[in-house]
Design a protein that fits this description.
Radius of gyration: 19 Å
CATH superfamily of the largest domain: Class II aldolase/adducin N-terminal domain
Number of domains: 2
Shape: elongated
Structural class: alpha+beta
Number of strands: 9
Oligomer: single chain
Order of helices and strands: HEHEEHHEEHEHHHEHEEHH
Distance between the termini: 58 Å
CATH topology of the largest domain: L-fuculose-1-phosphate Aldolase
Largest sheet: 9 strands, mixed
CATH class of the largest domain: Alpha Beta
Strand order of the largest sheet: 2-5-4-3-1-6-9-8-7
Number of helices: 11
CATH architecture of the largest domain: 3-Layer(aba) Sandwich
């Protein structure tokens, strides 16, 4: 077997969590990531017949949650109560590789959580979002929850209306409508770590790759770690610009007609919420 600590997917988790912590998005044990892996790539590093222990899911009642559509899928997941800043130096304690158990009611630990830990309490919400996104985008592999500072700050001073919030973000950087043409979804404040917020997030994930949890943070989805990180990074950059200029008179802006030109140039009309533009 190859050394699991040198596996590309472990290295990706180390780099990404370190970046997110450095950017100030994931204070203390804030934030979590789940990354769906191919069985063949994991088999190069682990004996898939060796289950360390079976772990029930946190935050949900078994009767209320069904992950059977992704039964047998393998994920590398950040641990509950773990700090992103520690993943790089001790991945085997702060990360785990788990397989969705038969019936979709728990997970089988294949590696990690060596101190007796378990997946993030948000993992049921992640799985719901994975299932929703896989129906829309079969290559979706990553769900990322984080607390980007400016996006969160913007929640307090901007109307939490999907069209208005998206439109403001699109106006901040020319690339925004190209990077997230479907806009951003928004949920009202809800209790985290519950079945209810997972269901609501998954419902939004049918239409959006970025979902804002009001006054809390964001959920992002993508095919790769880079794509998902870059998606959230772009939203956060736009929010940062808004927070820098929001209380000042605006002399210049990107016009809706100009955003439509970008949509046409990049041929993304079928992906764009054109109803979020005033044309």
């Amino acid at each position: 077997m190859k050394d699991i600590l040198k596996a590309p997917f472990v290295e990706e988790m180390k780099r990404t969590t370190a970046n997110m912590y450095r950017l100030g998005w994931d204070e203390r044990n804030g934030g979590n990531i789940s990354y769906m892996l191919e069985e063949e790539e994991v088999a190069e590093y682990l004996d898939l017949n060796r289950v360390i222990r079976t772990i029930p899911l946190m935050g949900v009642n078994a009767a209320d949650f069904d992950a059977s559509p992704i039964e047998g899928k393998i994920f590398i997941v950040t641990g509950t109560g773990k700090y992103f800043k520690n993943v790089e130096v001790d991945p085997e304690t702060n990360l785990g590789i788990v397989r969705i158990a038969k019936g979709g009611k728990g997970v089988e630990l294949l590696w990690g959580y060596k101190d007796g830990g378990r997946p993030t309490s948000e993992f049921p919400a992640h799985m719901m979002s994975h299932m929703a996104r896989l129906k829309v985008e079969p290559e979706n592999r990553v769900i990322m929850h984080t607390h980007p500072t400016n996006t969160l700050a913007m929640n307090f001073v901007h109307e939490l209306d999907e069209k208005k919030f998206t439109h403001t973000l699109w106006e901040m950087c020319t690339e925004c409508i190209v990077v997230f043409p479907e806009g951003v979804g928004i949920l009202p404040w809800m209790l985290c770590g519950t079945n209810s917020i997972g269901v609501a997030t998954a419902d939004k994930m049918k239409d959006f790759r970025v979902v804002i949890w009001a006054l809390h943070g964001v959920y992002g989805a993508g095919k790769t770690m880079d794509e998902t990180f870059g998606l959230i990074e772009t939203v956060e950059k736009a929010a940062q610009i808004y927070m820098l200029i929001g209380n000042r008179p605006r002399i210049n802006t990107i016009k809706d007609s100009q955003m439509k030109e970008l949509v046409d140039l990049f041929d993304i009309a079928d992906k764009t919420r054109l109803d979020f533009l005033d044309l």
